[in-house]
């Protein structure tokens, strides 16, 4: 094995070592430059020569992977921004036009009680009912994680019970409820397509005086 060879390299004397420039500095053969090129064990930098006239070769895939990671990071931030804006436009302030733009026509809320909420119209009806029962309703996003076309959110809702809610007359109680929701978005348009969620309904009922 030649000095600088790695295990598995061509054996000394075989034809892989023969031929002009094979395993050598391109300047080999000139006076003062008769030495072999040495290869790094890591292999990532390609062939590395101690001569300053030979540059290390960085595979294009390294830069491509970095660019892909950067794009993924930007996409995740975009997904989170869409959901954050939806919470703001639906809970913190009721903006019907924004909901129409954010929600896909075939949207389905898989976690709504009773008949599933569908499309922008269903979302607006659901949110309007919440605001009627809790006129000062607000939401705080505690945690948010995005992956592929999904966004997971852990949140806290605050409001004062001043209107009928699920058959319960107004109590004037100040309530705080936590919930966890998963959102699916359309890859091309960024519109919200599906939702799954859980919230602490038992805690809400206790705060409204329901045993």
Topology, please?
Elements: E1 38-39, E2 47-48, H1 60-92, H2 96-102, E3 103-109, E4 117-118, H3 119-133, E5 138-147, E6 150-160, E7 174-185, E8 192-199, H4 201-207
Parallel strand pairs: 3-8
Antiparallel strand pairs: 1-2, 3-4, 5-6, 6-7, 7-8
Helix pairs in contact: 1-2, 2-3
Provide a short characterization of the protein structure.
The chain is an alpha+beta fold and 211 residues long. The chain contains four helices and eight strands.
Mind explaining what this structure looks like?
This protein is α+β, with helices and mostly antiparallel strands and 211 residues long. The chain has two domains: 21-58, no CATH class; 70-207, Nuclear Transport Factor 2, Chain: A (Roll). The chain is 29% helix and 26% strand. It is built from four helices and eight strands, in the order E-E-H-H-E-E-H-E-E-E-E-H. It has helices at 60-92, 96-102, 119-133, 201-207; strands spanning 38-39, 47-48, 103-109, 117-118, 138-147, 150-160, 174-185, 192-199. It has a six-stranded mixed β-sheet. A two-stranded antiparallel ribbon has the order 1-2. A hairpin with a 6-residue loop joins strand 7 and strand 8 (192-199). The longest helix has 33 residues, at 60-92. The N and C termini lie far apart (82 Å).
């Amino acid at each position: 094995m030649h000095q600088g060879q790695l295990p598995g390299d061509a054996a000394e004397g075989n034809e892989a070592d023969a031929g002009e420039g094979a395993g050598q500095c391109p300047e080999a053969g000139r006076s003062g430059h008769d030495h072999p090129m040495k290869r790094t064990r890591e292999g990532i930098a390609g062939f590395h020569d101690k001569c300053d006239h030979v540059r290390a070769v960085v595979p294009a895939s390294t830069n491509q992977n970095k660019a892909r990671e950067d794009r993924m990071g930007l996409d995740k931030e975009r997904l989170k921004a869409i959901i954050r804006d939806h919470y703001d436009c639906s809970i913190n302030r009721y903006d019907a036009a924004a909901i129409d733009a954010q929600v896909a026509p075939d949207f389905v809320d898989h976690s709504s009680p009773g008949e599933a909420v569908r499309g922008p119209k269903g979302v607006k009806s659901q949110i309007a009912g919440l605001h009627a029962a809790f006129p000062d309703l607000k939401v705080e996003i505690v945690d948010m994680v995005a992956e592929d076309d999904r966004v997971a959110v852990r949140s806290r809702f605050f409001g004062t019970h001043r209107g009928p809610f699920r058959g319960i007359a107004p109590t004037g109680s100040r309530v705080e409820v936590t919930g966890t929701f998963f959102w699916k978005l359309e890859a091309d348009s960024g519109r919200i397509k599906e939702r799954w969620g859980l919230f602490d309904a038992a805690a809400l009922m206790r705060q409204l005086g329901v045993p």
